[in-house]
Amino acid sequence: MNIKVSLCLVLGIASSIACSANVDVGRTGESRLDSNDNGSTGDPSDPGSSTGTGGSSAGCFWDVVLSSSASADGCESDSALQNAAQLACAAKGGAIDAFEGDEACGKGSSQQAKYECCPVQPPPPCFTQTVGNAKQCSSDAELEKLGQSACAAQNAKLVKIDPDEACPSVPPEGASYFATIACCY
């Protein structure tokens, strides 16, 4: 089964060149940039399809994307090949860690390119951090506001606050220098 996706939709590109390109992602995950939308099969025996080149560490793998340019020399800009590689890698749940065009057509223009695709690591579900000031006591309510801001800056929500309660027992009651906060996504 092939999936044909417009680069401009997936990558948010407004260029008329990039928006006219499509990438086929075939049944075995191979990819092909198709500027002419000629219905690539995604089959490894298809000269326009890529083939895997082996494994890499930490769940990464190397793959190849081939030009499908209609030009006589079969050359494609490296940026178009990189866009195709990014789309193919994203379809496999990854992100490109390395990219190298063969430069067979001169600097910035290639017939094929190899890229390393690595799994995208989701952010940890929760994290902790410290908020406050060593030179100033703050009320627990003020520290909670600082904690909410710190969590929001990471698109997370404050789920726990643990003030150190280290300030002398003078007003404000419940005053602390620092608080350890927990934020979750």
Based on the model shown, name its key terms:
13 strands, alpha+beta, 185 residues, 2 domains, rod-shaped, disordered N terminus, three-stranded antiparallel sheet, Dna Ligase, domain 1
- What is the CA-CA span between the terminal residues? 35 Å
The helix fraction, in percent, is: 10-25%
CATH superfamily of the largest domain: Amyloidogenic glycoprotein, copper-binding domain
Question: In total, how many domains does the architecture comprise?
Answer: 2
What form results from the Cα inertia axes?
rod-shaped
Question: How would you sum up this structure in a few lines?
Answer:
With 185 residues, the protein is of the alpha+beta class.
Structure in words:
The protein folds into two domains: 3-119, 2-Layer Sandwich (Dna Ligase, domain 1); 126-184, Dna Ligase, domain 1, CATH 3.30.1490. It is 20% helix and 34% strand. It contains four helices and 13 strands. A hairpin with a 5-residue loop joins strand 2 (22-25) and strand 3 (31-34). The longest helix is centred in the middle third of the chain and has 14 residues, at 78-91. It is rod-shaped and about 80 Å long. Residues 1-55 have low confidence and may be disordered.
Sequence-ordered SSE layout with sheet pairings:
Elements: E1 3-6, H1 7-11, H2 16-19, E2 22-25, E3 31-34, E4 61-66, E5 76-77, H3 78-91, E6 94-101, E7 109-110, E8 112-119, E9 126-132, E10 138-139, H4 140-153, E11 157-163, E12 175-176, E13 178-184
Antiparallel strand pairs: 1-2, 2-3, 4-8, 5-7, 6-8, 9-13, 10-12, 11-13
